[in-house]
Amino acid sequence: MTKKTILAVDDEEHILELIKFNLEKNGFQVITSDNGEKALELLARNPIDLVVLDLMLPGIDGLEVCKEIRRMEGYNKLPIIMLTAKGEETDRILGLELGADDYVTKPFSVRELIARVKAVLRRSEDVKKDNTKVLKFKDIVIDLEKHEVTVGVKQIELTLKEFELLKILMENRGKVMTRNVLLDEVWGYDYFGETRTVDVHIRHLRKKIGDDETSEYIETIRGVGYKMK
C-alpha cells in the first residue's frame, strides 16, 4: 500500500519535529514547512494527501494558506486539519468556513492528532469510493461518482465536510439528525470539539446552495440538530 503524504506547516521547530516523528511512526510520509509561502510551493511540486496547518504563521498566515489551497487546481477538496491556539475561536470558525475539515487545539495530544488525521483521510477515501448512485432532492443533485453537486444548472463547489453533510441529510430526508450523530457520521470518530462545528459547516453549506435566507432545503430543529425537508 502506498504511503499517504502529509504536509505539516508550523513555525515552531519542536512542534514540526513532534508531528513528523509521530506521523512517520504511524506509517505516513511527511513533508514539513515553517511558513505559508514555502507550504504553497511544496503543494505545487508534490502530491499531498492531507495538510496539518498552523493558523499563526509568519508572512502568509494559515487562513490565507487555506484560502489559497482551495483555489489550487486539484486541491480544492484536499483535507486540511488546522492547529489553533486555545483562545482563537473566531479564527477557528473562519478557518472552517474557508474549507478546513477539522481542527486540533494547542497544546494537543499526539494521539488525538493521529486519530483525526486517520479519520479525515478515511472519510476522504470513503467519498472517493462511494459511486453507487445519484441523490436528488428538489433541484439539488449529488453525483457520488463524480463527487459533484449541482443546484439547478449551477455546479456548487463544496468542501469534503460540506459534501458529506449534504449527502447524509439527503440520504436521511425527513429524519432529524442530531448534531452529535452528524459529528459521528461525518467526522467518523468520537469528536473532541464542540457541536458548534456542525453549525458552522451547515451555515456555510446553506449559503453555497442558496438556502441561507429561505431555508427551502435544510430545516433547523432548535436545540437538536437538522433535517432535510
Automatic annotation (TrEMBL):
It holds the Pfam family Response_reg. The modification 4-aspartylphosphate is found at residue 54. Keywords: DNA-binding, Phosphoprotein, Transcription, Transcription regulation, Two-component regulatory system. Residues 132-229 form the OmpR/PhoB-type domain. One of its GO terms (biological process) is regulation of DNA-templated transcription. Residues 132-229 bind DNA. GO terms for molecular function: phosphorelay response regulator activity; transcription cis-regulatory region binding. InterPro entries: CheY-like_superfamily, OmpR/PhoB-type_DNA-bd, Sig_transdc_resp-reg_C-effctor, Sig_transdc_resp-reg_receiver, WalR-like, WH-like_DNA-bd_sf. GO terms for cellular component: cytosol; protein-DNA complex. The keyword Metal-binding does not apply. Residues 5-121 form the Response regulatory domain. May play the central regulatory role in sporulation. It may be an element of the effector pathway responsible for the activation of sporulation genes in response to nutritional stress. Spo0A may act in concert with spo0H (a sigma factor) to control the expression of some genes that are critical to the sporulation process. This is Stage 0 sporulation protein A homolog. It comes from Anaerovirgula multivorans.
